[in-house]
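G., the chain you wanted modeled:
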Amino acid sequence: MVVLFRFASNIISSASNQLNNIIRLLTALFLIVLIFGTAIHLLEPGVYPDMFDGFWWAIVTISTVGYGDFVPESHFGRILGVLLILTGVGIFSFYLTNVATSAITTKDNIERGKYRFHRNGHIIIVGWNERTRLLLKEIKSQDPQAHVVLIDESLERKPSDLNWVHFVKGPASHDKILHKANIQEAHTAIITADSHTDEHAADSKTILSILTIKGVNPKLYTIAEVITESQILNARRAGADELVQSSVLLSSLMHNGPECHGVSKLMLTLLDTNTKNKMELQKLPEECIGLKYGELIEDWSFDGEHLLGIWRDDSAQLLPPDSYELKEGDHLVVLVKKKK
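Predicted structure as tokens:
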């Protein structure tokens, strides 16, 4: 039902360019019904006692329904009926064809990513690849009501299994494309690395997308995937709020694998949103600023939460020494048990 509602709202909002034609056709139909309905009432007042009866006869005639409850009896009345059929039926059929064609064209244009997104509080994902497909699956499982806009220039049309996602075709480095995704009212932007090119070109494209996104909406929280280590600093300079170094994560998992078998499965388990526990960052309470880590551990009494370390300056200090001093701006790295 939600998917149907979203599709219907897209059809209505996106068909504004066809509205003038439809209004003209409806106006023409109304005038034909008015003229012929009034004329048949004046010609045969005995058969059509009032003007509404004439209107009713004109409508059922041009719609080819022809109930037969009102039938002209005079020659002039029947000639008028023939004229109505020759003119009104053609316009009525053209109107129905126009509406049907408009709906089909609009649906096709939506799937091809040509229309603007009008909602707010949505997530924008840049780039279509296997990582994006899995990310969309996670988002859908966590929040079935989530609004997501996919920006990609390689797709010809939106994948058939993503009816709940709004697709915008084009590069995220163009202001016009970002405005189509309604970036001004978005909640978060996630930029994935382009898998259709080499690593350096992919990172350059990501950095350009970050610059454009931050230029259009500086306050938008932006998460970007960076492949090469040499481009991390440039991505931060561009304004990325959070970076995912996919090559570093992969190499670390593969390096630890021979020494500790199963460590990659452990990390995936911690990251899996479907497990009973999840890792998260919590802002350090004001009353804890200035304390030592050992003192924090002694006073730790949060139900269902396990403290793993401290997050500071974009890096984690896991299980720091007891003498580690807590500062303003620190975050707690916590393993949280999900509530049922």
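The chain has eleven helices and ten strands.

Shout if anything looks off.
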